[in-house]
Write a structure and sequence with these properties.
alpha/beta
């Protein structure tokens, strides 16, 4: 893949989002719209390959937005970047079903390593950043993997687009 044409994503899991996993919450719906616009903007800048870490929460929103763009723009490709084989093993059944449905619709699947260990998510995030020129992030200022990935991307001099997490509804 051409780094200049590649965009990756980082964002929070449901436990760090004010609406948790209630995707019908107006704040979530508003974030999804802004995320779809950010994906469209990335496309307008020449990005054609998108990489997603396939975690619960914001990653799923990003994946949905790219799949929607791909329906209109056939040259768009989506890569599922999976940290380890058992990423979804302990998830609720409905989350696992959505995960596998999303992966099935991706153009490419990359498993960073077979077995889980405490560094596999970090290695997945570095894999994506090292192969991209743009990072889109859903970030609320909290410590954790999203913050680390943002810092790593800035150190690597990627262009970064940060979408803040809306705390209150309607705006």
């Amino acid at each position: 893949m051409d780094i200049e044409k590649t965009c990756c994503f980082t964002g929070h899991r449901p436990d760090k989002l004010p609406w948790r996993d209630d995707e019908g919450d107006p704040r979530c719906m508003e974030l999804k719209l802004r995320l779809a616009r950010a994906v469209e903007d990335a496309y307008a800048q020449g990005k054609r390959h998108f990489m997603c870490g396939m975690a619960l929460g914001a990653d799923f929103y990003f994946c949905d937005a790219v799949l929607e763009l791909r329906q209109r723009r056939r040259e768009v490709t989506l890569e599922a970047c999976i940290p380890c084989e058992e990423q979804a093993a302990r998830w609720r059944e409905r989350d696992r079903q959505r995960y596998f449905s999303l992966i099935e619709r991706c153009d490419r699947e990359t498993m960073v390593q077979q077995r889980y260990d405490k560094g596999c998510m970090l290695r997945r995030n570095r894999y994506m950043v090292d192969r991209s020129s743009l990072l889109i992030a859903v970030y609320n200022g909290m410590l954790g993997g999203t913050m680390y990935t943002l810092q790593y991307a800035m150190k690597r001099q990627l262009e970064v687009v940060i979408l803040d997490v809306p705390l209150k509804g309607g705006g």
